[in-house]
Amino acid sequence: MTNPISAGPSKKDLHSVYAFGIFSMALIDIFVLLIPIFAKESLGMSDGEIGTLVGARSILSLFLSIHGGALMDRYGTRRITLMFTGAVVICGPIFPLLSTFWALLVLQAISGFAISLGWSGAQTLIARIADGDAEYIGRFSTFARIGTTIAPIFAGLLFDIGGAWLAYGFGTVWAACAFYALWRTPEPNPRSRVKNAVENPKFRLSDIMPKVSDYRASFALMAIPAVAFTAVAMLVRNSTYNLQTSIYVTYSYDAGLTATKIGLLFAAIEMAGAFGSWYSGRAMRKFDPINFLVLTTFVTVSLIAATPLIGGIGEGAWAIFGCLLIGQVIRGYMQGVSQPILFSVQAISVTKEQQGIVVGLRQTMNRFGGIVIPPIAGFTSDFYGREESFYIVGGGLLFILLCLAVYGHFVPRIATPSKSD
Asked: 270 and 332 in contact (C-beta within 8 Å)?
């Protein structure tokens, strides 16, 4: 049984949030690409230290993502997201000034949280505007990947040309563009229509402090089987990205690839994901979403775990680059198809007033993986070897996926939105 056909969201609202999506998601790729290259090339840090720095960007998000989502529900998504996007503009030019591990660790935590909440805001905006329709969310993902296709290439190229200052300067300008795009994006729902919102809210100290009730309400959503399944599925799926932003970068760099080529690999997975996301709406209507998510996640995890085998096929920097590029394209397509479905299943499983906290829950699970996976992969690389690290961490993720597939058989069938003509 499917949901009734609706008139669909406002095209003006859709276009506005699509524009913000181009810049918001790409901020993640810019900063996660630059930190391992900057730490290894300019500061000579080990894989373990680099993995810890990569993981640090998720520390604050782990504990405060749910609170950030609750603030969006309470005071307006646009208002809260503007604050965090503005913080990224401030943090960008500070990176090249720092040269110690602990200083970078602190800045990574702050900037990572701001970027994460900015992307959470983008997801909340599209979830409310699209009413959980995978077709529109898929188009949003495509526009987001336009930015993530372009940005890493320029970030890597500028690092090769002018080092950290030029590359992080580009990241700062990109963040400013995101702020401007969001400034022109309207709030999707008037506060009077949002249950937990208040008219003309004024911030007080008690308002910005985390509330136990928000966390209780968010984790209570895990009682919904579809939400629990997708939260863990997103954790496993995004753990492959955490490998990509840590030992994958150092592996590629030591294999002779320049920052520009590594940026191209980042761009390739996003470009392929853009094509995949256009198919997500049809895939969700044609296949069972739960089984489809298990299959696509299996392919995604297997490909990242096999990185040393894929790269080992080629001899020389360009041959290695070509082999890794093929792997990235396949993995990106699978991720592109699955991401809107994950978002859609969660969005249609909760009420409109709960969209912020369900995004916060999703981000909390993602950040947990973001904190744990890069240091584990990095220190495993230091102690057992980089290739072995791919196999060990990848094997662990596949085991979790196996358990998730078993749980998926107990998840009730998802009622998918119908496409309006």
From this structure: yes
Instruction: Read off the tokens for 245.
Output: 């932003």
| Residue-wise pLDDT tens digits, 170-203 | 999 999 999 998 888 877 764 444 444 455 555 5
* pLDDT of 363 strictly over 80: no
- Please give the Cα distance from 331 to 322 (Å, whole number): 14
Q: What is the sign of the dihedral through the CA atoms of 160, 246, 297 and 416?
A: negative
pLDDT digits (tens, 9 = 90+) for 283-292: 888 888 888 9
Return the axis-axis angle of helices 317-349 and 289-305, rounded to nearest 10°.
150
Structure tokens at 72: 């969006």
Residue 224 has what DSSP assignment? S
Candidates 111, 77, 70; CA nearest to 92 is 111
CA distance 55 to 101: 13
Condensed to tens digits (0 to 9), the pLDDT of residues 151-168 reads 999 999 999 999 999 999
Compute the CA torsion angle 94, 98, 101, 105 (nearest 10 deg).
-10
Q: What predicted TM-score, i.e. pTM, was given to this entire model?
A: 0.81
Say how far apart CA 340 and CA 121 lie, in whole Å.
16
Element (H, E) at 214: helix 212-220
Say how many C-beta atoms besides its own lie within 10 A of residue 412's C-beta: 10
pLDDT at 209 over 70: no
Q: How far, rounded to the nearest angstrom, does the alpha carbon of residue 278 sit from its chain's CA centroid? A: 18
Cα separations in angstroms, 77 against 5, 7, 194, 346: 26, 23, 11, 18
Q: Quote the pLDDT of residue 128.
A: 79
Residue 62, amino acid:
L
